[in-house]
Amino acid sequence: MKKRILIVDDLPTIREPYQLILAKHFEGVDDLEVISAESPEDAQDKLGNLVAIVTDIEMPDASDGLGLIEQVHQQDDKIFIIAMSSDGGYESFAIKAGANTFLSKPFKIDELTKLLESNI
Questions:
Q1: Structural domain boundaries of the chain?
Q2: Burial of 31 (0-12, 13-18, 19+ CB in 10 A)
């Protein structure tokens, strides 16, 4: 079964380009796929075989990126977790919840690819 990187963001204008860019970036890596979810709820059936998750913290409809981070970290602390938000005030909460690192939106895609390359 393929190892997976999961992108979770409610905005398709962020989620879909990140998924495409990361899929292209890692296309030479055997048994690795990049998948996405539009909410923590949508992510629930996609949590198997993860090596990394990149998740927004602020999402509508009572979606809780911090709760997803806690859940993933408790299930498997070897999964590399990147939290992201346009509000830098969430950084300490994300790290406390189990994220390995935090990116403030907007960020350069190179920051994301370098983090993933060095940690998965």
A1: 3-119
A2: exposed
Report the SS3 class of residue 97.
Answer: helix
Q: What is the pLDDT of residues 20-74, one digit of tens each?
A: 999 999 998 989 999 999 999 999 999 999 999 999 999 986 568 999 999 999 9
Four-CA torsion 66, 63, 39, 119, nearest 10 degrees = 0
d(CA 43, CA 65): 11
The three-class DSSP label of residue 78 is coil
Q: What is the pLDDT of residue 60?
A: 84
Model confidence, pTM:
0.95
Instruction: Name the CATH superfamily housing domain 3-119.
Output: Response regulator (3.40.50.2300)
Per DSSP, 48 falls in state T
